[in-house]
Amino acid sequence: MTQALNGYVKVGDGPRKVLAMSGWFGSANDWQPLVPALDTDAFTYVFFDYRGYGRSRERDGAFTFDEAAHDVLALADHLGWDRFSLIGHSMGGVAIQRVLLAARGRIDRMAGVCAVPACGSRMDETRLAAFRTAVDDIEKRAAIIAFSTGNRLAPRWSAHMARESQRVSRADAFAGYLPHWAASDFSADVMGNATPVKLFIGEHDPTLTTDVMNRTWLAWYPRASVETLANAGHYPMYEVPVALATALENWLKQA
């Protein structure tokens, strides 16, 4: 019996293998603005969709990152990837670390793009309840997106992103992943991990700042470093796609 696999988008046919995991509001489509700048001779990229999202929208599940890690490794096995690198945006930062813990030495390096650390976003119940309202309230989604990019971009763009997030994800999946990135903490499990890690943050991201990276990722991963992307908030793949693609590949090519 053939194992069911998550949906994905594959770009390139190069020898360096990279799998990217999107954020709470996103899908595999988030990475498309980078494609014209990617070195598809050097890299093979797979842009992954979680259960309940994008090309995996109709795939039921528990909507946890342990489940997502299992799905990633099943896909990697299907693709014949023994070793590969990971990119995670926002909640995808939590997701790639769950893959790392499940992968038993298969991960070359990791890149976090405005990436939530292993302690989660440390939301208290009041803030978590406010985020839960975004499951059914598209205006709340737009407000969160606007805030996360520094309230400096056209409101029509934030509204568009909110509508797209509602279109590409199921409400039960959107709600299901929330507590696992917002209020979980598995930092003790990654403490001292020697995997090379690069964190890319947006200069206008109000939440995932250099200080937060220093107190979390850099405290737990001895081979981690941070780079700030100018003129970007929480969505650099849309705000500065060529700069992000260049910075990512400069890092990944060191493997």
From TrEMBL:
Query: Which residue intervals define the domain AB hydrolase-1 in the entry?
Result: 22-239
Keyword annotations from UniProtKB, A to Z: Hydrolase
**GO terms for molecular function, please?**
hydrolase activity
Quick check: keyword Nucleotidyltransferase in the entry? Answer: no
Q: Is Hydrolase one of the keywords UniProt gives this record?
A: yes
Q: What name appears for this protein in its UniProt entry? A: Alpha/beta hydrolase
Originating organism: Caballeronia arvi
